């Protein structure tokens, strides 16, 4: 069998031909993972590449495609994780980008990850993928959960229907994951799909890799056969993909017209049938292909006539007609392949119960508040404990060092106060808060709680001009604004994305939290912390209201999938927490340490004063001591620097924070730090998600708001205190 | 226009007009089938991609308080729909049980 296959292949292509691959290595196979959101693409990606792609139980965490590499059976694999999408239309930018990527030369094999528990909806995407006539492997994931529901899928039959490899997987346990790669090799070498389920006790097809697992010689020979996916012989699925008579007739006519311009359309990589369907559907991107060329323009009019005819005939919108047709076909397939072993008795599982209580009209909100408050308390208790301990250690060591060498020599100032003090400040002042916080955020993400919060708060968010989904990046923003603002990509329209990033950038992140807790929480008590947060949230609401009023357009409605809860996977959570913390340690810590040294140098050469003098109008309005000016500048880089460096300064001056700042000043200082500007990284992300003009506008607006509110609080507070 | 369509459908429906309602008016756990989606073009596209097309069976699960969004089960998954959209989806009671919900 194997021999025949190989021979059959060699006849078609001359072995002497150099591989036509665009990639640098001859034995490279490029794989793209595509599918609906939250079906386990990222899990498969991580299983394969060992990389730490963010996994979460909410749709949209893969905000841009991630790439990873691995070596397997002598082949080099390039794996790309595409964002989860429901369709290949033009609903969102992700859909357009994904479909262009899928047909491009950069990908050889597409793995369509399908959630076995949600076959019907997932197959809708598969049907769209099949229209693109690219080499597809169907990976049926979460088969174990389906088993638990006493259902199973007839994989053999499914393979017969789709004429493409169908592989059952349990990605979270790594089951079936490497078989996907073997299948990818097969597809790239043979250029046609094969079936490999047992038939009458005999294997239909034996894998190349099964027979020659380690024989590199064979691998080398096979790599000669790798060709771009254009040479892939897509199976004849016309009977499967055919629409109803009315629609199909029109599409066939369009296909025959399009085929006249094959040489022109070949540059877009899309097959004729796909172009015909999308032309009929009035797809902007495909329309533009037709508009570009003088001679194909007439097809736009024909398609429009067809569309009107169909819409009139069915009394429905064209998208609805085509989707209905596809869903009808899927429904028939499901009947064939999905086997219910016995009538399912849906007992209320723990997940259902949790679902019920967390979306309860009363308890749902109580739980939401408890989660948010609990997160802060947990973070703060742990952070305080560890931070206090570290501070003690540093204090003890400082005494010893000063005792031995004195506090004045240059090297003591630079190395001890600057470097070691900086490290201790960064760990004790920031890291101890950041790690527990990330841990909770990961648990929240992985369990699937976030969409519930979106469900509960949708109404409230409409008040701010966005729909409930915004709450997901906003909650993540409590951890760090940077990934949270990037996560605003899940918003559907530009307008909502703009409002979302602005609101998310105002969420007090863990860095702000450390400043607030370390200053106000430590010296003034929790009531004032609450007051600060209250002011912050009022500002967010006002901001949202104003943006909603001033930005043209209207708020769209929420359409969101809500996934079942799942038990957080300890390994995944710990790994992700570590990854995030690692990022912080290696990116933020060096900055903190270097700036700590710079601060020492500035202090030594009395260079702080000119800078502070320059900023004095602002510090004066805010009622802060002159010396704070420089820290507000540093805070733009990372917000926790304001406090960490202030502490450093106090130490260098031999003072404590309460000696440096009055309670009111502490409050104002924290408030300003909270509001005044998104940190540098956040501004960059906002600019990337929207544009620079908008990012700068938001940043300046926030600075203005912070100064106004800070001044109001200071002068108002001073006035009130004088009355007492 | 929608009125005329609804009238048309109601005419065919022997059981009278009271059966047709919008999604927001449905009872909890009621099995219903979609008759007409009357939202804007973009939302219609997304809804049809997610399986909310005429004839689709779904179950209304719960709705958020204070006229918040509501959750429906369709094709084995849960969808949350804003109230505005839900009020533009017209449905009727479905007698036949749908085994894939």
Number of strands of chain A: 9
* Mean of pLDDT of chain B: 76
What's the CATH superfamily of chain B, by name?
Ferrous iron transport protein A (FeoA)
- Our count of helices of chain A gives 34
Distance between the termini of chain A: 95 Å
Cα Rg of chain A: 30 Å
Structure characterization notes:
The complex is a heterodimer of chains A (724) and B (101). Chain A has 724 residues and is α/β, with parallel strands linked by helices. Chain A has 3 domains: 2-231, Rossmann fold (3-Layer(aba) Sandwich), CATH 3.40.50.300; 242-315, no CATH class; 363-552 and 574-723, no CATH class. Chain A has 34 helices and 9 strands. In chain A, helix 21 runs parallel beside helix 23 and helix 24 (510-523) packs antiparallel against helix 32. Chain B has one domain: SH3 type barrels (Roll), CATH 2.30.30. Chain B has helices at residues 2-12, 41-49, 83-86, and strands at 21-22, 31-37, 57-63, 70-74, 77-81, 89-93. Chain B has a 6-stranded antiparallel beta sheet with strand order 1-6-2-3-4-5. Chain B is globular, with a radius of gyration of 13 Å. Chain B starts with a helix and ends in an 8-residue tail after the last strand. Classes of the chains: A alpha/beta (724), B alpha+beta (101).
């Amino acid at each position: 069998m194997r021999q025949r296959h190989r021979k059959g292949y060699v006849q078609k292509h001359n072995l002497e031909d150099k591989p036509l691959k665009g990639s640098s290595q001859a034995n490279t196979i490029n794989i793209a993972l595509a599918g609906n959101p939250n079906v386990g693409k990222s899990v498969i990606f991580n299983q394969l590449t060992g990389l730490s792609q963010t996994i979460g139980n909410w749709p949209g965490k893969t905000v841009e495609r991630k790439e990873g590499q691995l070596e397997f059976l002598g082949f080099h694999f390039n794996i790309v994780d595409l964002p989860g999408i429901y369709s290949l239309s033009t609903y969102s930018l992700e859909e357009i980008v994904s479909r262009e990527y899928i047909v491009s030369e950069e990908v050889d094999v597409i793995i369509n990850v399908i959630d076995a528990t949600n076959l019907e909806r997932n197959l809708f995407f598969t049907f769209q993928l099949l229209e693109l006539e690219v080499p597809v492997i169907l990976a049926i994931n979460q088969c174990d959960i389906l088993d638990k529901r006493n259902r199973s899928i007839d994989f053999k039959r499914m393979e017969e229907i789709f004429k493409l490899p169908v592989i059952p997987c349990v990605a979270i346990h790594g089951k079936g994951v490497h078989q996907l790669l073997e299948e990818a090799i097969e597809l790239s070498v043979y250029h046609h799909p094969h079936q490999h389920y047992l038939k009458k006790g005999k294997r239909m097809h034996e894998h190349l890799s099964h027979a020659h697992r380690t024989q590199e010689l064979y691998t080398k020979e096979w790599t000669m056969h790798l060709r771009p996916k254009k040479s892939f012989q897509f199976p004849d699925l016309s009977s499967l993909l055919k629409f109803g008579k009315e629609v199909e007739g029109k599409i066939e006519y369009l296909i025959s017209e399009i085929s006249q311009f094959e040489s022109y359309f070949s540059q877009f990589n899309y097959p004729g049938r796909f172009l015909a369907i999308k032309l009929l559907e009035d797809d902007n991107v495909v329309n533009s292909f037709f508009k570009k060329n003088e001679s194909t323009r007439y097809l736009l009019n024909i398609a429009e006539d067809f569309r009107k005819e169909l819409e009139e005939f069915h009394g429905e919108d064209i998208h609805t007609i085509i989707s209905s047709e596809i869903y009808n076909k899927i429904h028939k397939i499901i009947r064939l392949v999905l086997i219910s072993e016995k009538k399912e008795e849906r007992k209320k599982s723990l997940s259902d119960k949790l679902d019920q209580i967390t979306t309860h009209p009363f308890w749902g909100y109580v739980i939401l508040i408890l989660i948010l408050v609990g997160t802060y308390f947990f973070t703060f208790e742990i952070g305080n404990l560890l931070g206090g301990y570290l501070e003690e250690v540093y204090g003890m060591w400082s005494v010893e060092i000063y005792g031995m060498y004195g506090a004045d020599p240059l090297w003591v100032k630079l190395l001890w106060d600057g470097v070691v003090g900086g490290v201790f400040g960064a760990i004790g002042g920031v890291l101890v808060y950041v790690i527990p916080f990330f841990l909770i955020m990961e648990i929240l993400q992985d369990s699937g709680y976030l969409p519930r919060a979106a469900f509960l708060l949708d109404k409230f968010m409409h008040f701010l001009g966005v729909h409930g989904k915004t709450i997901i990046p906003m909650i993540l923003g409590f951890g760090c604004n940077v990934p949270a603002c990037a996560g605003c990509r899940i918003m559907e329209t530009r307008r909502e994305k703009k409002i979302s990033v602005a609101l998310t950038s105002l969420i007090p992140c863990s860095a702000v939290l450390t400043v607030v807790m370390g200053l106000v929480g430590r010296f003034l008590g929790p009531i004032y912390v609450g007051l600060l947060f209250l002011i912050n949230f009022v500002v967010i609401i006002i901001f949202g209201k104003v943006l909603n009023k001033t930005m043209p357009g209207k708020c769209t409605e929420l359409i969101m999938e809500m996934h079942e809860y799942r038990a957080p996977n300890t390994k995944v959570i710990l790994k992700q927490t570590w990854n995030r913390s690692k990022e912080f340690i290696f990116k933020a810590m060096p900055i903190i340490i270097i700036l700590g040294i710079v601060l020492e140098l500035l202090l030594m050469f009395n260079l702080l004063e000119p800078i502070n003098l320059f900023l004095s109008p602002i510090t004066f309005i805010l009622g802060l001591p002159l010396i704070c000016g420089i820290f507000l500048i540093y805070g733009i880089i990372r917000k926790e620097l304001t406090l960490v460096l202030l502490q450093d300064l106090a130490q260098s001056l031999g003072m404590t924070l309460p000696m440096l700042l009055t309670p009111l000043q502490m409050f104002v200082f924290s408030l300003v730090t909270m509001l005044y500007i998104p940190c540098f990284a956040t501004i960059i992300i906002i600019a990337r998600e929207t544009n620079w003009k908008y990012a700068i506008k938001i940043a300046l607006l926030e600075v203005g708001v912070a100064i106004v509110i800070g001044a109001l609080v200071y002068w108002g507070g001073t006035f009130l205190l004088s009355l007492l | 226009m929608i009125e005329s369509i609804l009238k048309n459908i109601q005419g065919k429906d022997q059981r009278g007009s009271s059966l047709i309602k919008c999604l927001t008016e449905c009872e909890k756990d009621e099995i219903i089938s979609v008759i007409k989606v009357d939202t804007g073009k973009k939302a219609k596209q997304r809804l049809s991609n997610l399986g909310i097309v005429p004839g689709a069976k779904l179950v209304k699960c719960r709705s958020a308080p204070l006229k918040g969004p509501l959750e429906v089960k369709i094709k084995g998954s849960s969808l949350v729909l804003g109230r505005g959209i839900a009020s533009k989806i017209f449905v009727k009671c479905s007698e036949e049980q749908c085994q894939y919900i």
